Amino acid sequence: MPDPSEADARINIDQLLREADWDPSDKRQVRTEVPVTLETGLAEADIRFPKKADYVLYDSNGRPLAVIEAKKNGIDPYRSKQQALQYARAILAPFVFLSNGDVIYFWDFIEGDARPVASFFSQRDLERLVHQRNNRKDLATLPLSDNYLRSGEVRLLRLYQLACMRALDSALLLGKRRFLIELPTGCGKTDLVVLYIKRLLQAGHAERVLFLVDRESLAKQALDFIQDLLPDYSSYWLKAGTAPQHKQITVVLLQTMMSRYESFTSGYFDVVVADEAHRSIYGAWRPALEFFDAFHIGLTATPARYIERNTYQFYHCDGNQPDFSHPIEQAFADGHLVPYKFAEGITELLADPFEADGEEYDPAAFEREWTNAETNELMMREFDRLAHENFRELAPGLKDSDGPGKAIVFAITKNHATRLAKILNDLHPEAKGQYAEIITSDIADADAMIRKFKREPYPRVAVSVGMLDTGFDCREVLHLVLCRRVRSPILYQQMRGRGTRTAPHIGKKGFVIYDFFKNHEYFGDSDDHPFTGSGSGSGSAPPPGGPGGRELIELDLDDRWRERVTYVEVGPLDTRVEKDEYRSRWERVITEADASADPIVRKIKAGEALDDAEQDALTHRLNESENYFNEDNLRHAYRTRTGTLIDFVRAALGLTRVKSREEQIDDNFRAWLVANQFSAEQADLLSMLKARGVANGKVEVADLFQPPLDHFNAPERATQLFGPQIRDIVADLNTAVFDSTA
Asked: Which of 292, 452, 523, 619 is the most exposed place for a label (fewest CB within 10 A)?
């Protein structure tokens, strides 16, 4: 008979099994106290009195799939793995779970050691793993093709792409379950990883793949690539209001997955790809990524110097270096990227590099101080003149009628973007107002405008705030116009990367950066010595943790400002609406739609999935000019970095609520514990330390000496459990848990 504390653990285990689609009351699926006759060679008493396995899980044909060894609360179940292994071998079960009702370990004992997981695996998950084990091919004997078909055109894999695929093979063969790839923007990260997914699917090493991105444009791009390169495999985009389709490849926004991941089991996917992995690991998104026990492949264009330590920890990278990287200098030298030059003779608006305090920076105030009608006119006229002078040299294959080619203008605010677009359209009356278009989150159909910019002669110029900085692919871009200051080294390199892609069909030889705010001087970037974040530029950009702190590395100052102010800036003129008022308007609009029997809102209320047409119709209707309700604005109004449009509709209807700061901290904390594989005793102490951080906004080593931790002998326990690493652990706890919910 289990003691009371173990009985409590079993109550929790039963519930966790139900959440993984097991029925503990169905003896065809789950049995408890299963007699096990151990192998010979043990003590005679053991043979005479057979042992009992706490739980055994069975497949759909009644064969044992896994043994669950249950331990009482507070005991690290990892200690009991050898006992569970004996039981599993005795009944020919291929897998083991170890759990105390709070912590779960999964052990595929043929492949490696027991590892913590977020949930039990379903019957289908375990059957799939057995099938893969019995049928997969050896990657070492499977040849790598050096060519592939892309949009009907035969392309050759580049040498570094082949080398990366071989490195991925080696990682899998060695049991490394996480792999981080750093390739510069334009070097074919997506093609590479999609082709590797194909390799794993063909070899039987994977059946279900998750492709995580953090922007809608990246989701569309990834799905297009997947369906073009892998037409024989089923794929779809899982949207916020739609039902899972259980296809082989699922593309999903991190923001959507944050509210959906717990509807899956942690063993549902075999491979998880995170595009722009350094952003995926960052705080608020981390729980969705940590949840899945899979082969994780991270993609990033961010140089190693600026990748956060917790990203390296998640991907199990040694020496704070990616598992595979290809330097941008080599990509330029090999012709895989086109070089850039800075426009000469332009009027630079700042005589000295602008410095700002991340706590105080206000983009609108900056716009008012550093730009006016005259300077805006000056910038656009100089850009327009030089662009028409340069384009034949940049792209000899471009027709004169298509000159000066495609351009992106980066503005300070949406109001600023509107002013710049008007000036450009006034300069080109022949285009009838279509020469320059504003692309921001508040326009009615930003995605349609992006497609138009990429595929049609007009607009020639896209004027943007935030949407085109990263994850935007248009090979024909010849001009990048910086009408704002940038102090994030990551963001600067991502913006610069919008022009580096090759475009042989127009003979693209390079592109021009029109830097009106001397950003390149701040980062030491030049035509001859590209800034790479590794000190190779000629200037002195701040290192990580330097002026402005961590937020300058990952977020630009205007992002931090938007999180701290009491208002939301909406619409093309950045109209300021108090966050409380914006939420009230939102709730009123949704409740009125419900009262008037709006069919889409009623479907959401009933818990029914929306189809793509309904999702798009709802998105466009709510983002109309009266209120500009969209996910970006709603997240700022609700002071959260997560949440989809459907989540906010459900919250307005009273069906759910947006998670509080404390709940977001708890989610991030649990994900952080799993990522670092702390023992139960370590996790217990860190949980007490976290509780002080909830009240204070951060934790410090000195908190160990304060009530209530000092009553539990916390300083001595911390020394015993963590040694001198306690300071690094506290710093990482702040970064991963508290910074992301500031």
From this structure: 452
- Identify the pLDDT of residue 353: 41
Q: How far is 459 from 468, CA to CA, in rounded Å?
A: 15
107 has which bridge partners?
96
Give yes or no: residues 248 and 197 share one domain: yes
What was the pLDDT predicted at 558? 47
> Which of 135, 169, 194 is at the close of a domain?
135
Residue 394 has pLDDT above 60, yes or no: yes
**Which of the listed residues 559, 582, 613 is the one where a domain comes to its end?**
559
For 42-68, give one letter per residue: b (16+ CB within 10 A) or e: eeeeeeeeebebbbbbbbeeeebbbbb
- Record the tokens describing residue 46, joined without a space: 């053991």
- Candidates 539, 476, 481; CA nearest to 512 is 481
- Going by C-alpha positions, the residue among 467, 483, 461 that lies closest to residue 410 is 483
Question: pTM, whole model, 2 decimals?
Answer: 0.79
Same domain, 194 and 268: yes
In this structure, are 625 and 687 located in the same domain?
no
pLDDT of residue 699 exceeding 90: no
What lies within 8 Å, CB to CB, of 60 at 6+ separation is: 123, 127
Which residue, among 237, 20, 8, has the nearest Cα to 117 in the 3D structure?
Answer: 20
E-assigned strands of 90-186? 95-99, 104-107, 115-117, 147-150, 153-156, 178-182
Q: What integer pLDDT is reported at residue 564 of this predicted model?
A: 58
Compute the chain's Rg from CA coordinates: 28
Residue 620: domain span:
565-652
Instruction: Give Cα 453 to chain centroid, integer Å.
Output: 26
Confidence of residue 304 (pLDDT cuts 50, 70, 90): low
Query: What is the C-alpha separation between 82 and 635, in angstroms, rounded?
Result: 48
Q: Which helix (H) or strand (E) is 409 found in, with range?
A: strand 406-410
Q: Residue 655: pLDDT above 60?
A: yes
Same domain for 384 and 423, yes or no, is yes
Residues 157 and 186 grouped into a single domain: yes
Q: Which residues pair with 237 in a beta bridge?
A: 251
- What distance in Å separates the CA atoms of residue 426 and residue 61, rounded to the nearest whole number? 73
> What is the biggest distance separating any 2 CA atoms in the chain, rounded to whole angstroms?
97
| Number of domains making up the chain | 5
Whether residues 407 and 517 share a domain: the answer is: yes
Q: pLDDT tens for residues 525-580? A: 988 877 776 444 444 444 333 333 333 333 444 444 455 567 787 877 778 888 88
**Dist. CA 233–CA 148, nearest whole Å:** 16
Residues 129 and 165 in one domain: no
